[in-house]
Design the sequence.
């Protein structure tokens, strides 16, 4: 396949998604890599295929003493630069390729072996300066192409249908949309229905979100959507991440941050927003995967020009 948006920065994992000395396979633009973190917190990545007989290195194990990854087939060891380690000696030249990583605030970025065309977005830094990281949720392989998966994050009308039950949204108004190249900001007002006590007990997020919710969305094309909202119990910063695994599979996950004043409510608040965000990903995934092949739309809804802004950036890349 042709690489999707070569030169874009892709956030492929958060440090919390990696165990210590536990190989993790990731796929980016149809290329498999093995990612691991050592006991010092250093993170490395190599092509996942062993150059001997093509076994997946992600099925192997890490030798802690030498910072090497071991092939599961013949126990061949490779260091972090892709050099083979034999008889207590390293070769001088790598025989498998490493993947350059950029670690920023525990986020693991890469350009996937392409020359950078955009910087790492600074929206993450702004959130980390103000909020506490509470976890990762919704890690999913969406069986859909990247553009289709991307555009649902710019679709403000699908909340009334796709997420009707979880948030009881009645209406959505976009009061402002500002774009500056590959970055955009949206101001949004949501109106929700009144909720019964039974509904709140079943879905605590309904008791956290007010009936009138004003929020901000910050976009860093193509990978990042940050949802910022203030509730009576505290502030939420939800960073929705996407990257292309293959032509027809898109990886997504959510990094959740919060600022809660009341320590008594902190546990409930954190669990509720993580659960709600995970449900949103499931609902979006089902919606995207059930779509028929795209045709020219015969209907126009409010605020859809924001979707077409993202689509134009994609096609003009």
Sequence:
């Amino acid at each position: 396949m042709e690489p999707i948006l070569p030169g874009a920065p892709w956030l492929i994992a958060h440090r919390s998604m990696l165990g210590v000395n536990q190989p993790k396979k990731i796929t980016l633009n149809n290329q498999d890599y093995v990612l691991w973190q050592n006991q010092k917190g250093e993170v490395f990545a190599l092509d996942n295929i062993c150059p001997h007989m093509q076994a997946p290195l992600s099925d192997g194990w890490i030798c802690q003493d030498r910072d090497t990854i071991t092939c599961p087939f013949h126990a061949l060891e490779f260091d972090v630069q892709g050099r083979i380690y034999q008889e207590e000696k390293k070769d001088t030249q790598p025989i498998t390729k490493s993947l350059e990583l950029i670690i920023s605030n525990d986020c693991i970025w890469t350009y996937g072996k392409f020359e950078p065309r955009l910087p790492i977005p600074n929206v993450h830094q702004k959130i980390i300066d103000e909020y506490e990281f509470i976890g990762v949720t919704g890690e999913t392989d969406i069986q859909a192409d990247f553009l289709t998966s991307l555009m649902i994050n710019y679709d403000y009308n699908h909340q009334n249908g796709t997420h009707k039950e979880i948030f009881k949204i009645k209406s959505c108004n976009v009061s402002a949309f500002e774009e500056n190249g590959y970055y955009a900001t949206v101001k949004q007002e949501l109106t929700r229905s009144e909720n019964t006590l039974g509904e709140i007990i079943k879905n605590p997020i309904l008791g956290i979100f007010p009936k009138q919710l004003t929020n901000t969305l910050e976009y860093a094309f193509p990978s990042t959507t940050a949802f910022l909202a203030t509730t009576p119990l505290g502030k939420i910063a939800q960073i929705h991440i996407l990257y292309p695994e293959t032509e027809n599979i898109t990886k997504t996950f959510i990094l959740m941050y919060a600022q809660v004043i009341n320590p008594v409510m902190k546990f409930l608040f954190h669990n509720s927003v993580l659960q709600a965000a995970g449900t949103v990903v499931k609902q979006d995934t089902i919606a995207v995967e059930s779509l028929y092949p795209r045709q020219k739309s015969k209907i126009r809804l409010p605020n859809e020009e924001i979707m077409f802004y993202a689509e134009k950036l994609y096609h003009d890349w």
Notes: The helical segments are 123-130, 146-151, 159-162, 164-167, 197-202, 205-208, 266-289, 305-316. DSSP finds eight helices and 18 strands in the chain. The chain has a mean pLDDT of 92. Residues 266-289 form the longest helix (24 residues).
